[in-house]
Design a protein that fits this description.
By secondary structure, the chain is mainly β. The chain has 3 domains: 31-172, Immunoglobulin-like, CATH 2.60.40; 175-305, no CATH class; 313-431, Sandwich (Immunoglobulin-like). The chain is 14% helix and 48% strand. Strands 1, 2, 3, 4, 5, 8, 9 and 10 form an 8-stranded mixed beta sheet that branches. The chain has a 5-stranded antiparallel beta sheet with strand order 13-14-17-21-20. The chain has a 5-stranded antiparallel beta sheet with strand order 15-16-22-18-19, with no helix packed on it. A hairpin with an 8-residue loop joins strand 24 and strand 25 (338-346). Helix 1 runs antiparallel to helix 5.
């Protein structure tokens, strides 16, 4: 039972981290509280897209007008909602909800006028009740990207209590595209690209530079950038695509290299894929604008493996008891060759402080299963790195997992580094996660909470 609680809180904390990492007008937004009369009011808005490949089968929009002090929905609410994509109006309608909760189910159609039907139909009208649950059909949300909303609060608390308050919000509906890559060394794979701002086009892979390239419409005017929150692109790379699973990437927008801090690597969320996030905030877009004389009406993105080493790579153990700094030489792991792995096990909350001598369980696995190498060991008590030489078989190339387990005898003190055995020397390191320092700090805080929660559970004997 203790283990279940421990795992549950990790899942909860991880989900919280994922939701907050790229929020602020993306999948959901909670607007700052403001007074309407004597009530401190906030409005939350979120979307749940239902996607089949590139086709939007439907999108549900959820809105709640809420008392910020009691955190309860405000009944008898009337909202006038207008939606825009770029400079185009998408829809406008007045919605009512007895409960203060609004559920708007959008079913995109290529032609025809937009219709608004409240669920409950005739019965709702006869009894003077408004469910707040509407089906909306028409040319609405038929493509992904950023949608902006103007929301006018007309009534709240009672339908005859008229008020006047305006809110502005933005929601991004993801646009999914697949890019098929036929690599002479690693076979055929699909990279998935997810755009959160507008529809992507000219999606291609350059085998010579090993770069993924795609273009998105973008208005570089001061007015548009002034309203911007964030431009977010997500690239999902199969772990089996060895030459593209590296320690560091270079990314460009309109041929301008963007800072490393705008590139975030996630090796945790999906087993078969590494996720690379490109996240440009308003100030980053303004900097790009200042470096271009005539940027046109688009953003062209390019992502490729960097020629720079990014060693050491750092991971926290699952219980945040330790962090491990790992590097290897040569930086490209080759079949039939010996690679030396150097590592240091450190205190997670103190910079560069190596823990005392502890036992560890070190493994190199084919993917996540077959064992290539395994060794039990004990770290040195000095501040020097520990080193392990691993001979790789000549008949294996592809994804590997470098695993540290049972640190100091704890089954929870473990972590994994994904990497690749390359079929040829490319000059690039062949793996793994690199998180911005801010992300590491957040993860440390989350895991610190996990440790606190677990100790509390032990004390209560749950």
């Amino acid at each position: 039972m203790k283990t279940i609680y421990f795992l549950s809180i990790i899942v909860f904390a991880s989900a919280l981290f994922a939701l907050k990492a790229y929020g602020d007008g993306l999948a959901s937004e909670t607007l700052p509280p403001s007074l309407i009369g004597t009530t401190n009011v906030t409005l939350t808005i979120g979307s749940i897209p239902f996607l089949i490949d590139n086709n939007h089968a439907g999108t549900q929009l959820n809105l709640v007008l809420m008392d910020a002090d009691t955190q309860k929905p405000i009944p008898d609410a009337t909202l006038a909602i207008s939606a825009f994509k770029g400079q185009d109006a998408v829809f406008g309608h007045i919605f009512k909800s007895d409960s203060g909760n609004f559920i708007l189910n959008f079913y995109p159609q290529q032609t025809g006028n937009t219709t608004f039907d409240e669920k409950g139909g005739v019965l709702s009208g006869l009894f003077g009740q408004d469910s707040g649950n509407y089906d909306v059909k028409g040319q609405v949300f038929n493509t992904g990207g950023l949608y902006r909303f103007k929301i006018e609060v007309i009534t709240m608390g009672a339908y005859d209590n008229q008020v006047s308050k305006s809110y502005s919000a933005g929601i991004s509906i993801p646009e999914y595209d697949n890019l098929t890559i036929s690599d002479p060394n690693y076979g055929t794979h699909q990279i998935q690209i997810i755009g959160y701002y507008d529809r992507l086009h000219d999606i291609k892979y350059d085998q010579a530079t090993k770069s993924v390239n795609f273009t998105m419409p973008f208005d570089w005017s001061d007015q548009n950038i002034g309203q911007l929150t964030v431009v977010h692109q997500e690239i999902r790379i199969p772990r089996a695509l060895g030459d593209f699973v590296v320690t560091k990437y270079d990314a460009y927008v309109n041929n301008i290299k963007i800072p490393d801090k705008l590139i975030s690597i996630d090796d945790y969320s999906m087993d078969a894929y590494r996720i690379v996030h490109l996240i440009l905030y308003k100030s980053d877009v303004q900097n790009l604008q200042s470096e271009q004389k005539d940027p046109g009406q688009y953003m062209t993105f390019s992502l490729k493996p960097s020629s720079d080493n990014a060693f050491p790579v750092i991971q926290f153990t699952r219980n945040a008891q330790y962090k491990i700094a790992l590097s290897w030489d040569p930086p490209v792991i080759l079949p039939g060759a010996t690679t030396q792995f150097s590592f240091r096990i450190m205190d997670p909350y103190t910079a560069n402080k190596t823990v005392g001598s502890i036992q560890y369980d070190f493994s190199v696995l084919e993917g996540k299963n077959g064992v290539i190498f395994h060794q039990l060991g004990k770290t040195a008590s000095s501040d020097d790195d520990d080193a392990i030489s691993v001979p790789f078989p000549s008949n294996y190339t592809g994804a590997i997992t470098i695993a540290f387990e049972n640190l100091n005898g704890s089954s929870f003190a473990s972590t994994e580094f994904p990497a690749t055995v390359s079929s040829q020397s490319t000059g690039n390191p062949s793996a793994v996660p690199e998180f911005p320092l801010a992300s590491l700090a957040i993860l440390a805080a989350v895991f610190g909470f996990v440790i606190f929660f677990t100790k509390a559970m032990n004390t209560l004997k749950i």
